[in-house]
Specification:
single chain, 399 residues, alpha+beta, seven-stranded mixed sheet, four-stranded antiparallel sheet, 11 helices, elongated
Length: 399
């Protein structure tokens, strides 16, 4: 990813969170397999037979044949027979069919290691192939940012994330999560909101004022986020951990421990922002008639790209094609809600070690059974963002 120096001279980063966790080269899990050097003329026949009698069901990313050059550049082929069943490749522990194959072709077997899981990056794949050749399949979906951001794109991402973190610090002495939904094709804020789990009158008024539906369209027109000054930016999150207890995604069960006040356990920032996005659509397209379910299934993200007048004429289908910025990594409930909304990319700043669903605890973006997948990025800003947040919160009422 492209790193951009901020005005504070500290480095900002945009880190792609892959569908599966990455392993350090020396920490990639391995398993033992039984292999043998073979004659090149026998390779095709042996591979066909082994695919029938001993398919690599749990090692589909591992290739059957390894080719390397030995003395004088002469090629040598090694064939993966099966996973090991005993110590030292003992013949009596081999499946009968493998034993017969080894005996028939007079193979000399040996035990070697292969990587247990498929590579999630080209760097991982390069390291895996040093043990035994594997296959690598990069993401097939075309989502901008997975292979890197331009400087202009990076600065836009940093600007929206700074705004999100500013929004997360309410003026009444509470740090909450914040969500900002953005149309990346126009760099327009579609909706923004904070946690509304705590619903006492004073807190609700302050926390929700940024995303109030009544003045929402007017607020959008007057905001200019890309030119916003950097008012948050240098300190460890640990310094204000004690004042983050009201972040809904970090403490999703906090409401159940409260004996007083009015609480709504489902009004996390992302959920509220989705609600405001829907309210905005209703205001902009009051006479819009939803397409039939059959037509709705055929709607593609490209249908919502702003090309001339199409953006103004066509009501968006949910949040298709939009990005969402979150101060904290979302919980499973919010992450799943964003799947249903067809969000294109999720950017968050702080990991959520207690309930994070996009890298810290779970990786919902890697669940292949889902009918929609988004790309996930962590935006690392200079730590002064959080230090200034702490100062702002403390001066507004928390000691």
């Amino acid at each position: 990813m492209k790193n951009i120096e901020s005005v504070s001279t500290q480095v900002c980063k945009i880190i792609h969170i892959p569908e599966k966790p990455s392993f350090l080269p020396h920490l990639q899990p391995t398993v033992n397999v039984l292999a043998s050097v073979i004659e090149p003329k026998d390779a095709n026949t042996l591979v066909r037979k082994l695919n029938q009698i001993a398919p690599l069901e749990k090692l589909q990313h591992v290739k059957r044949v390894r080719k390397k050059c030995i003395d004088g550049g002469k090629p040598q082929l090694s064939l993966l027979l099966c996973m090991t069943f005993g110590n030292d490749g003992e013949d009596d522990r081999m499946p009968y069919e493998i034993f017969e194959l080894v005996k028939s072709y007079q193979l000399s077997t040996f035990i070697t290691k292969v990587c247990k899981y498929a590579a999630t990056s080209k760097e991982e794949w390069d390291e895996q192939c040093k043990l035994w050749p594997t296959s690598y399949h990069p993401p097939t979906y075309n989502i901008s940012g997975i292979t890197g951001f331009s400087e202009e794109e990076s600065q836009s991402v940093f600007g929206f994330m700074r705004h999100t973190i500013n929004l997360a610090a309410s003026s009444i002495g509470q740090v909450v999560n914040a969500a900002v939904i953005v149309d990346p094709s126009t760099k327009q804020v579609i909706a923004s909101a904070c946690d509304q789990v705590i619903s006492s009158a004073s807190l609700a008024n302050e926390v929700s004022k940024e995303g109030s539906c009544s003045n929402y369209l007017e607020n959008l027109k007057s905001s200019n986020l890309e030119n916003q000054q950097t008012s948050l930016l240098d300190s460890s999150i640990g310094e204000f951990k004690h004042i983050t207890n009201n972040i809904a995604c970090v403490h999703p069960w906090q409401w159940a421990l409260q004996s007083s006040g009015c609480w709504h356990p489902l009004r996390h920032a992302a959920i509220v922002a989705i609600e405001y996005s829907a309210a905005r659509d209703l205001q902009l397209f009051p006479d819009y008639k939803a397409p039939s379910p059959l037509k709705r299934q055929k709607i593609k993200e490209s249908d919502f790209q702003s090309n001339g007048h199409s953006y103004q004429l066509l009501r968006p289908y949910l949040c298709t094609g939009y990005d969402i910025y979150l101060a904290w990594e979302p919980c499973a409930m919010c992450a799943m809600a964003l799947v249903h909304q067809r969000v294109r990319r999720i950017f968050f700043s702080s990991p959520n070690s207690s309930a994070g669903a996009l890298g810290s605890i779970h990786r919902l973006q890697g669940e292949r059974s889902l009918n929609h997948h988004y790309a996930v990025f962590r935006v690392v800003l200079p730590e002064e963002v959080f230090r200034n947040t702490v100062v702002d919160v403390k001066t507004s009422g928390i000691g």
